[in-house]
Design brief:
Carbohydrate ABC transporter permease; 0% strand; single chain; MetI-like_sf; 2 domains; mainly alpha; MetI-like fold; cell membrane; transport
Length: 285
Amino acid sequence: MSDRLFRLINGGLLGLMALLTFFPIYYVVVISFTDSTELLAKDYILFPSKWSFDAYSYLLSTDAFLRSLGNSAFLAVVGTVCSLAVTSSFAYALSRKKLMGRRLLMLLTLLTILFSPGIIPNFILIRQLGLLDSLWSLILPAMATGWNILLMKNFFDSLPQELGESAAIDGCGETRAWVSIMLPLSLPALAAFGLFYAVGFWNQFFTALLYLNDSSRWPIQVLLQNMLLNASNTDLAVPGEFVEVPPSESLKMAAVVVAIAPIVMVYPFLQKHFAKGAMVGSIKG
């Protein structure tokens, strides 16, 4: 009886927490689809009587919003590919026992985990490299982290060393062994790290505020923050055209939905890779 009571209370509390977590998302979606006349007439709406796609139609017709979506997509795709290439190649090199300077490289990798240069040195470095107002300023510094490199290295260490030895006997070099043998075997790890990198690049916000002054380079998160602070949303105005603009609240909510939609759609299908990513490199043998 006590076990059944515990399960009942536990299920009720978890259900309540799930409802509290889901409600803000539900409210944002409802407001984004609510007709403008009803939105202006009521202060609080849970079940709109009339649905409308005007906010989405207006957002997707503006150059600023589409440009920011393109910038975020570029960061997510190009940044993820570059990050996986750097992380996997460096990790594979560290997993080779005969690599010259291996201990020094391991020490330098650990130092990047223990010590961070801070915001100002990073900004000075980006400025000296001439990367200000460039999307590459958001990609290059975040292409690899010491923690991910070490996890990937442990994953390569867990693979049988005989694979590399047999490839060397057949005349296969280290680069070809990495591309033809090790990378296909590490697809689960690459998928997990790829998802981590993609989510990180899609949600780039603070570094974009630091390095991007040109509004045409803003990713979707920065534009969304500017929309939430700017009540008039003049940055989204279509020049030379008279278009009936939906209410500001509806536009903001629609922008939030569009900003989170790609990640929300990806998570249910690839969630197992995130769970597996937490175990990458944790067990050797």
